[in-house]
Structure formats: structure tokens, C-alpha cells
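Notes from the pairing session

We agreed to fold both candidates in a single pass and log them together. This is the raw record for the first candidate, unedited. Please don't reformat it; downstream parsing expects exactly this layout.

Candidate A
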Amino acid sequence: MTGYLKLLGAVTASGLLGLSALPADALTAQECSAKYQAAKSAGTLDGQKWNDFRKAHCGAAATTSAAAEASAPKTAAAPSATSAGNAVFPSAVSSKYAGETAGKARRHTCLDQYKANKSSNANGGMKWIMKGGGYYSECTKRLKGA
């Protein structure tokens, strides 16, 4: 029995050592794929295939150099997706949704205003849901504060 426990302990210890050797800062497959597709559309692959690109740009060594590049200041910052611009938002939750829960009432009020804004192009260029915050996100933030 003690031989079995020693063997189990040794296997567990070697497994933990193996896990600690994995790169913690390597890109995920999804992040690497997005990076590959961006390079592919920009034409900067220089004939590299997926596996070559992944090994060169998505491993632990590649992410440390990418982090150094990311920390460098960028010359032109992209406008924030959450900037409301000239979007029109409701000032309060609509009384016709008084029987709903607070979250549903805000959602329905925002959706009614979004649909009304669509015809007059008053959504500030925002979609209902966008990465970084769309009309729904901004509207509910404002209604929660009101």
C-alpha cells in the first residue's frame, strides 16, 4: 500500500511540475486566429502557413515582445465605441412598462427609443449591441442613474 502511495505522490508531483512549465501569457487559439486573420487580410504573412504563424507570433516568447509593443504609445487612438455622439436617449423609464421588473422596463423603454431614433438617424451611429457598449448599454446606464 505504501508503494502505491509513493507512486501516486510521484505522479502527482510530476504532473504539477509539468503544468507549471506551461506559458501563462501565451495567446489563446481564438486570439491567435484573430491575429492571423488580421495579418492575412493586411497581406503581411509573407507566405507563412497557420502553424508557422502560430509558433512565431502566438507562443510565450512572442507575447512578451507583443506586450512591449503594446505598451508603446500609439499615435492615433481609435474613437471609443461607447461614445454616444448625437444619440438621443430617454430621460426616464416609460410609464407603460410600470408592471414590468426594473430591468425589463429599462430594456423596453430603450428599445422603443432606439426604434424611434432609427427613422431619424439619431442613434449616434451605434447599433443596439456593440463590442465596447452599444445603444442598449449606454441607455440602461443613463436610466439607472436617473
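Candidate B (folded immediately after A)
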Amino acid sequence: MRIINKLVSAFFLIFGFLLISAQKMPPAPNSGETSRGTVGPGAQASPIDMYVYALGIIAVMFIVFFTKKYTSRKA
């Protein structure tokens, strides 16, 4: 039973990661304006999307840590 639980949780973890990264954002269209002070479509000023991967990895690490902590306490 434990092996089945591990396989199911690994499947959902992999499936969730693939679901998150399945669709990439298309590049922003060029508005044709060359001035720097305009508001509108264009590239982002900061790469916020990279934080999503880091937060996902940290969340998985916390889940593993607390799972090991509480299972060792029960035994």
C-alpha cells in the first residue's frame, strides 16, 4: 500500500508540474513606439515568472520536510 501511495503522489507531482509549464506566454506585440516613457504592451521590467518555479520547489521541499518530521515522530 505504501508503494502505491508513493507512485500516486509522484504521478500527481509530475502531472502538476507539466500542467503548470504546458503553455508558454507568447511574446508581447511591438507597439511601434520607440520612446521609453510610454505605457502599453512590451517586455516586462522584471522577470516575475521565474519566481513561480522557485516557489514550487520550495513548497515541495516543505512538504517533504514536514512529512518526514511527522512520520518520524509517530514511529
